[in-house]
């Protein structure tokens, strides 16, 4: 049995079909990366797994149990947390309050506490009473990741956590991933930077116009295959 599995997952925005039959697997301790051009359906996929877009009940399985029809709040409690694109912090709350909000839907047991998040990202302890808008983009991203971790997720879904950040800041954020894995979360990354995705992922899934165009461990994929799967030619 797999930790997380999607089974012919489809997604619609009204009449527009954004995903066509996506099959994906994630096992305990794995990191997988989803790559693909703008509009390929990567964010839609994460939102579908997180229950923000509703698909068929049996199109998303956690430990083999269908969860596709469960409301998003239940899905957090079951152990799936999303770090959304654009971070979506609560602007009128402090850094610490943003982190605490992530803990409201938490599973009973798990390693993540405020202290643990502050050990992972020490700058957040210093900025704990600040408004998110006064933080740098990288620090805001750390808050968004910390907020998701506070729910003690078994699956952490990360939507473009490096978008718009300087390379040195991206390196800081990626440096946290091994620690997150040690604490028991498996990770699904949506990543525009293919080189970065290939470095950290056990398997890469490429989306093209809502369809899975390629999947496999990075070492098995050639540049040509990836280019074709990404751009379609
Ligand atoms: P990006 O890197 O630009 O975020 P993506 O691969 O994450 O791209 P999605 O955001 O999942 O792609 O979008 C997939 C398709 O669904 C696109 O054609 C997009 O225009 C469409 N789409 C996304 N959100 C909505 C929405 N709320 N209403 C209608 N169509 C949408």
TrEMBL record:
Keyword 4Fe-4S present in the record's keywords: the answer is no
Keyword Disulfide bond appears in the UniProt entry: no
What task does this protein carry out?
Involved in beta-(1-->2)glucan export. Transmembrane domains (TMD) form a pore in the inner membrane and the ATP-binding domain (NBD) is responsible for energy generation.
Please give the superkingdom of this protein's source: Bacteria
What is a single molecular function from GO for this protein? Answer: branched-chain amino acid transmembrane transporter activity
UniProt domain ABC transporter: residue ranges:
4-232
What keywords appear on the UniProt entry? Amino-acid transport, ATP-binding, Nucleotide-binding, Transport
Organism expressing this protein natively: Bradyrhizobium jicamae
Q: Which family does it belong to?
A: Belongs to the ABC transporter superfamily.
The protein's name? ABC transporter ATP-binding protein
**Cross-referenced Pfam families:** ABC_tran (PF00005)
Q: Might you name a Gene Ontology BP term for this protein?
A: L-amino acid transport
């Amino acid at each position: 049995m797999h930790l997380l599995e999607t089974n012919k997952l489809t997604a619609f925005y009204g009449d527009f079909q954004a995903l066509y039959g996506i099959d994906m697997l994630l096992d305990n301790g794995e990191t997988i990366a989803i790559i693909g051009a703008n509009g390929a359906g990567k964010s839609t996929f994460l939102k579908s797994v997180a229950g923000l877009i509703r698909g068929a009940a049996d199109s998303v399985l956690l430990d083999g149990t269908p969860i596709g029809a469960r409301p998003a709040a239940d899905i957090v409690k079951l152990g799936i947390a999303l770090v959304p694109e654009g971070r979506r912090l609560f602007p009128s709350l402090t850094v610490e309050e943003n982190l605490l909000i992530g803990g409201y839907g938490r599973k009973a047991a798990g390693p993540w506490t405020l202290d643990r998040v502050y050990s992972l990202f020490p700058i957040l302890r210093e900025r704990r009473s600040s408004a998110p808008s006064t933080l740098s983009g990288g620090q805001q991203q750390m808050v968004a990741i910390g907020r998701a971790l506070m729910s003690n997720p078994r699956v952490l879904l990360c939507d473009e956590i490096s978008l718009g950040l300087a390379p040195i800041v991206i390196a800081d954020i990626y440096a946290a991933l091994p620690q997150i894995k040690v604490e028991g979360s498996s990770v699904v990354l949506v990543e525009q930077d293919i080189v970065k995705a290939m470095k950290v992922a056990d398997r890469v899934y490429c989306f093209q116009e809502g369809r899975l165009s390629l999947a496999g461990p990075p070492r098995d994929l050639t540049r040509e295959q990836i280019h074709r799967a990404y751009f379609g030619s």
